Amino acid sequence: MSSLMWVKLWRDLRASSSRFALMVVAITVSLIVFGSVLFAWAAVGRETRGAYMGTEPASATIVLRNGIDVEEMAEIADEVRSRPEVIEAAGRTQFTTRVEVNGNPEEVPLQVFVAVPEDPLLLAKFYVENGGWPAAAGEIFLGSDSLDLLGAGLGDTLTVTTSGGQTVELRIGDTVYDPSLSPSPQEQTARGYLSTRSLIASGDDVLDQLKIQIVDSGGNVPTRDRDAIVEKAGEIARWLQGEKGLTVVEIQVPEPYTHPHQFQADSLLLSLLGGGAAALILSVILVANMLNTLFIQQTPQIGIIKSIGARSGRITGFYLIMTLVVALAATLLAIGPAILIGRAGLQVFLGFLGIKPVSVAPPAWAFLIVLSVGVCLLPAMAVIPVTKASRTTVRDAIDYHGIAEPNVSSKIMAWLTRLRRLDRRLLLALRNTFRRPARFWLSAGLLASGGVVFVAGMSLGSSVGALGEEQQAQRSWDVDVQLGSLAPAEQVIAIAEQTPEVVDVEGWAAMPVGVTGPGEIPLTRTYPDQGHGRTSLVAIPDDTKALPPPVLLEGRWLNPGETGGVVLNQISRDDTVPDIGPGDTVQLLAGGRPTTWTVVGIVQERVGHGAVYTTTDGFAAAVAGSPVVNQLRVTTSRHDEATRESVAASIEETLNEQGINVGSSISVSRSEAISEGHFGPVIAIIVIIAVAMGVVGGIGLASTMTANVLDRVREFGVMHAVGARPKTIRRIVISEGIILAVSSVLIAMVPALVLTGLLGAGLGDLFMGAPLPFRVSTQAVVIWLVLITFGATLATDTAANRASRLTVREAISYL
C-alpha cells in the first residue's frame, strides 16, 4: 500500500471517528460476553475435573446389608485389590442423623462419612484443612461449608446418634474440603468425617461399603467405561455373596469422571456460550453492514482513486486493513474485561459445584479462540462488501447519487403517507426506520436477543416460583417427621395426634431401595452423597391427602389395599430399569430382602429423586409384616412458621419420651430452601447475561442511528432550509430509535416463549427429571420494554443532537 493510501486510511479514521468508535464498542461488548463465558466454561471444566478426580472417587461402591468389622473388611479389600483391573479398594460406611450442637437440637441433618484410622485415603479421599487424618477418638471433622449451616465452630460439641442407635458426643476438631460432594447449603445437609475409633467404642460393626477403583485392561488410571465398571463390580459382588456369605443390597456406579452437578453446569454454560456467540455474530454483522454503508458513501472517492491508477486489489486491501483495525482494537479492549468477568463467573459456578479453584486463569486454547474470533470474524464478514465496493467502475462511481433503491418498506410508507390523519413526523420516523431493511433487522435482532434471554431468564424464575407454589399447594401438611427406624403405625400416629395444634397425621414409610430385574443385584447411579441417583420405596396410606395423584405416563395408579403392585416415577425407571413398563416384573431389594413386584404404572414427578410407590398394605406384606411408618406428615391448625416449629418440637419431644427415636422433625419450608439453592444461581447468571446482551443491543442501536444520521445529512440540511426546528428533527430521530426498540420487543416475543420452554424443560430435566411449569413473566416483559425504551432514548440522543445542530452549509458541503 502506497504512502498516500496510508494517509487516506488515517484521515478516514479521523473523519469518521465517532462511527468507528461505535463499531469498536459494539464488537468489544459482545466479545466480552462471549469471551467471559468461554473463559469461565473452559476453566470450570478443568477445575471441576481436576478437583473431583483429585479425590480419587470410587468407580463403584458395593453396599452390604450388614456392617462387618474393620479386620474382616481389610482382608476383603486386600483380596479385591489383587484382582485384575482393580487398583484400589477400601471399606467405608456412612449414615445420616440428627445432631445437637452444644446440647441444642439442629433442624439440619448431618451426613457422616466414616473411614478407619489407618486408611491412607488413596480412594474417595477428602482434605483435612488444618491438620491431618485420622480424627482422634471422640473427635469429628466438619465440611468447611457446614459450620455456618449448623451454627457451629471449631471446639464445639456435637451429639450424634450412630446408625446403631448409640449416642456419642464428639468435639469438632477440624474442617474438611471435599470437592466430590455438592455444597452443604444447597442440599441443606451438613457433612461430617469420622474415624471408626469413635464408632467402635459404641459397639457397632461399622463398615458396610466396599469402594473399588477400576481401570481398563493394561491401564493405570480409572476407566471411563461405565459398562466395564458395572461388569467388574457385579463380578466382585457375586464373589462376596458366594464365597464370603455377605448380602449385597446394591451396587452404586455414578457416571465416571463426572461431578454430581457437572452436567448441569456444563449445559448451562454452553447455553450461555451459544447466546454470547449469537450476540457476537449479530454485532459483527451489524458492524459489517455499517462498514458497507461507509464503503457505499465513499463510492465517489473510489472512482477518483481508480481514475488515477489504483487497482481493485489495492483498494480491497486498503478497506480490509481498515476493517482489521476495528477488529484488532475491539479485541484488545475486550480481552482484559473478559478475563475479569470470566474469573468472577468461574467463582460463581465453582461455588455452585462446591469446588475451590487451583487456578482461575483460562486455558491457552480459550485465549486463542477469542483472539482468532475477535480478529478474524469481522474481516471475514466484510470481504464480500469490500470486494463489491472495490470493483466499482469509474463510470458507476460518477453516476452514484446516494439514493437507495425502492424496496417493500418504502412502498408501504408511500401508502401510509396517503393517510391524512397520521402525524407527518411519525410517518417520517417510520420511513427512516425501515428505509434500510438489513440494518433495521440487524439492530432489532441485537436488541431482541437481549430481550429474549432477559424475558426467558425472568420467566425461568417465575417457573421456579410456580414450582414452589405447586409444591406448596400439593404440600397440604406443615411438619415432616422422620423416625430413626420403622415403628408401629397406630402407636406413632396416636401419639402425634395428641399434640396441641395438630389436626391431622398421616403415617408413611420410606426406605432406600435397589431396583432391578428378577435375580439381579440392584444397580444405581447413586453418588457418595446418597442423594443424587438415589431411589426410595415409599408406602402411602390409601386415604392420603398429602399426595395429589401424579401425572400418569403409562398404566394406572395404585388401588386401595393393593399388594404386590408398584408405581415407578420416571426418574427411578430411567436410572434403573429403563425398558420396563406396566405388567412387567421388577425386583426390589429393601432392607437387604429381595422382593418381587408387578409394575402397574409409570408417573411423572418434579421431585429430583427416584421413587417407587406402593400401598401401606403392600409394604407391610412384603417388607415389614405389619403396618409400620417412619415418616409422619402433620397438618397443624394454623399454617404459620411459628406454629409449625412449635408442633415439630413438641412431637419430637413426645415421641422420644415414648422411646421412639426421631431422626428429624422440621417445617416443610426446609424443602423450599433446597430448591432455591439449586435454581437461584442459574437464574441470576441468565439475567446477568441478558443485561449484557441488552447493552450490546443498545450500542448497536446507537451505531445504527448514527449511521442513519450520517446517511441523511443532506436531508436534514434541506429540512433546516425549509424551516424545520432543531427540536422537531431531534424528536424525529429519537422516535426512530424508540420505534426500532419497540419493534425489537415484538420480534422477541415468539423466540422468548420458545427459549422459556427450552430452559424450563432442560433445567427441569437436569435437576428433577421433568420439565418446570411453563410460565411467562409479564413483569419481565414490562421491565424490558421500559428499559429498552429508556435505553433507546439515551442511545439515540447523541445522533439526534447531531442531526438537530446541522447547518445548511454543513449539509451542502457533506460528501
DSSP helix count? 24
Strand element count:
21
**Poorly predicted ranges (pLDDT <50, ≥5 residues)?**
none
Q: Whole-Å distance between the termini?
A: 24 Å
User: What fraction strand?
Assistant: 15-25%
Order of strands across the biggest sheet? 2-3-8-5-7-6
Give average pLDDT, whole number.
Answer: 78
SS-derived structural category:
alpha+beta
Number of domains: 4
User: Which percent bin holds the helix content?
Assistant: 40-55%
Spatial extent as radius of gyration: 34 Å
The largest sheet is:
6 strands, mixed, barrel
What's this entry about, in short?
The chain is of the alpha+beta class. It is 54% helix and 20% strand.
Overview of this structure, please?
This protein has 815 residues and is α+β, with helices and mostly antiparallel strands. The chain folds into four domains: 1-57 and 257-402, no CATH class; 60-225, no CATH class; 408-475 and 672-815, no CATH class; 477-667, no CATH class. The protein has 24 helices and 21 strands. A six-stranded mixed barrel has the order 2-3-8-5-7-6. Strand 6 and strand 7 (167-177) form a beta hairpin. The two termini are 24 Å apart.
List the helices and strands and how they pair.
Blueprint: H1 3-15, H2 17-54, E1 60-68, H3 70-81, E2 86-101, E3 104-115, E4 127-128, E5 139-143, H4 147-150, E6 157-161, E7 167-177, H5 184-187, E8 190-195, H6 196-200, E9 207-214, H7 226-243, E10 248-252, H8 262-297, H9 299-307, H10 312-353, H11 364-390, H12 394-399, H13 408-417, H14 424-434, H15 437-474, E11 479-488, H16 489-497, E12 502-516, E13 523-524, E14 535-540, E15 551-555, E16 565-569, H17 570-576, E17 585-590, E18 593-604, E19 610-615, H18 616-624, E20 628-636, H19 641-657, E21 662-667, H20 669-711, H21 713-721, H22 726-768, H23 778-805, H24 808-813
Parallel strand pairs: 3-8, 5-7, 10-13, 14-19, 16-18
Antiparallel strand pairs: 1-9, 1-10, 2-3, 2-6, 2-9, 4-7, 5-8, 6-7, 11-20, 11-21, 12-14, 12-17, 12-20, 15-18, 16-19, 17-18
Helix pairs in contact: 2-8, 2-10, 2-11, 2-20, 8-10, 8-11, 8-15, 8-20, 10-11, 13-14, 14-22, 15-20, 15-22, 15-23, 20-22, 20-23, 22-23
